[in-house]
Specification:
The protein has 480 residues and is an alpha/beta fold. It has 19 helices and 16 strands. The chain has two domains: 214 residues, Aspartate Aminotransferase, domain 1 (Alpha-Beta Complex); 255 residues, Type I PLP-dependent aspartate aminotransferase-like (Major domain) (Aspartate Aminotransferase, domain 2, 3-Layer(aba) Sandwich). Helices cover 40% and strands 13% of the residues. The strands form six sheets. Strands 4-10-9-8-7 form a five-stranded mixed beta sheet, with helices on both faces. Strands 11-14-13 form a three-stranded antiparallel beta sheet. The chain has a two-stranded antiparallel ribbon with strand order 1-2. Helix 16 packs across helix 17. The radius of gyration is 22 Å and the shape is globular. Bound molecules: ligand F0G. The site of ligand F0G has 15 residues, from helix 4 and helix 5.
Length: 480
């Protein structure tokens, strides 16, 4: 909830109180250097015991509500016909408006099923931007992913409110080039993860739907961060200020032929879902659900998580829940901007994205600026962020490296987990790092897996920069 203070500032104030806590500790910088070296400068490979704040992701790490936790106690553990599933299906119907619910163990499992059943070799799949697992699944099946974002989308410094919009002209050109038969669906991702949590507008979604319908192409919405996108529409799109989050979600979902999501984000649990009102699509997917996920009333999820998901779906329509992370992200970004640190603007959903290309202009893409920055942030603060840049790119068909459009260190803000003083600490250490940015050099791969290398790849620091950075840190702060 945004509160205006008497000095005129507006700050986000939590609309909840904290009743369960988890202890965290800030280990000394010498220990942090050991930890990041052992992790091969890959923040995925750090252990949580070595972290002060875990801002790797909001996936599966949002704080659950008391009602979500309580619902887990009445979970109905049945292989088939579980009452927990019917509660989920009823929440999906009430909030999202879909008749048919197909649970899956997480978002990428939903992507796997959709890829398997809808994509043929030679197909083109247009989208506002890819997500890592989405692209791998769609291209494994022989499709080609086309990101047809607007010209503004990749400008990290911008005031355009909807950088997650699809470019309608490019969309039409693509359909003309391939023919509608080769375009199995168009995918719109709510608050495009990899370009800084940027939302699409409802106007754009309506236009995309109109073009798609004209050519008989279904619209798939990735709704993993649906309530955040709805909140940003409420704030930024003319005509939506007085609409409720529920009304906006209903309007988005009303345009989707299939909606799928990772329930690890807006739903604040651990699971996934495919939902539709199209019986033919439901019948096409249903038989494969038990093959890959589990029977249709649990789909690989624990029934406890299914119960909590039903509650989480209803709770996301509360404007203070939908906005809780968005407002912290905005505060975080604005505080960093005040210290001249380059971040993606306007701030979006999911997290605060530091622009590593502008932070470390002396590094080339293949020195992995975003990777080096995430390692450096950890070293000076104990905060784990995620590389979203060239390390996260797949090599091309000839195994050449591909430079990422953007180099971002993503500091995810899981809902209701961190407080204002945590954010202030993060701002302080990142701005200190910015003043010492010349000390940060590149990374070199020493172990590179063949697919999604950002998960398990290991690197070393060029010119031993991490040691020099640690020494500079010690002279200003001592050990912590
Ligand atoms: N779609 C989007 C937009 C996502 O952000 C994610 C996951 C997925 C699909 C895959 O879902 O993890 O449940 O299998 N994003 C996480 C992140 C991993 O950290 O941003 P999943």
């Amino acid at each position: 909830m945004l509160i205006k203070l008497s000095d005129g500032r507006e700050i986000p104030v939590e609309s909840h109180k904290v009743r369960i806590v988890q202890k965290i500790q800030l280990i000394p910088v010498t220990e942090r250097l050991r930890a990041i070296e052992e992790a091969g400068y890959n923040t995925f490979l750090l252990r949580t015991r070595d972290l002060f704040m875990d801002m790797l992701t909001d996936s599966g790490t949002n704080a659950m509500s008391d009602n979500q936790l309580a619902s887990m106690m009445v979970a109905d553990d049945a292989y088939a016909g579980s009452e927990s599933f019917y509660k989920l299906a009823s929440a999906v119907k009430d909030v999202f408006g879909f008749e048919y619910s197909l649970p899956a163990h997480q978002g990428r499992a939903a992507e796997h099923l959709l890829a398997k059943l809808f994509i043929k070799p030679g197909d083109a799949i247009p989208m506002n931007y890819h997500f890592t697992t989405t692209k791998v699944h769609f291209e494994f099946l022989g499709g080609t992913v086309y990101e047809i974002y607007t010209d503004e989308a990749l400008k990290t410094e911008s005031t355009v409110p909807f950088k997650g919009n699809l470019d309608l002209n490019k969309f039409q050109d693509l359909i003309k080039r391939y023919g509608p038969d080769k375009v199995p669906f168009v995918r719109m991702e709510a608050t495009t993860n990899l370009i800084g949590g940027q939302p699409f507008s409802l106007q754009n979604l309506r236009d995309v739907k109109e073009i798609a319908t004209k050519h008989g192409i279904p619209l798939f919405v990735d709704g993993s961060l649906i309530s955040e996108n709805a909140y940003l529409i409420k704030q930024r799109e003319p005509g939506y200020q007085d609409k409720s989050i529920q009304e906006i979600i209903s309007e988005i979902m009303g345009l989707a032929d299939i909606m799928y999501l990772s329930a690890r984000k807006s739903c604040s649990v651990r699971g996934g879902l495919i939902a539709t009102n199209n019986k033919a699509y439901y019948d096409k997917i249903l038989p494969w659900l038990p093959v890959y996920e589990g029977f249709s009333t649990y789909g690989g999820m624990s029934t406890k998580e299914i119960e909590a998901m039903a509650v989480g779906i209803r709770e996301m329509t509360d404007v203070n829940v939908a906005g809780s992370s968005v407002e912290f992200v905005k505060y975080f970004a604005e505080r960093l901007i005040a210290k001249k640190v380059p971040v993606v603007t306007p701030p979006g959903g999911l997290g605060c994205h530091v622009d590593a290309k502008r932070f470390l202009p002396h590094l080339t893409s293949f020195q992995y600026p975003a990777g080096a920055l995430t390692a450096a942030i950890y070293l000076v603060s104990g905060i784990r962020s995620m590389e979203r840049g060239t390390v996260s790119m797949e090599r091309d068909k000839d195994r050449n490296e591909v430079a990422s459009d953007l180099e971002l260190a993503r500091l995810a803000v899981p809902r209701r987990v961190y407080t204002m003083s945590h954010i202030e600490f993060a701002v302080d250490r990142i701005s200190w790092l910015y003043q010492h940015r010349d000390l940060i050099k590149g990374l070199t791969f020493v172990e590179e897996p063949p697919v999604l290398r950002f998960f398990f790849g290991k690197m070393t620091a060029q010119e031993q920069w991490s040691r020099k950075l640690m020494e500079a840190f010690q002279s200003d702060f001592g050990e912590v």
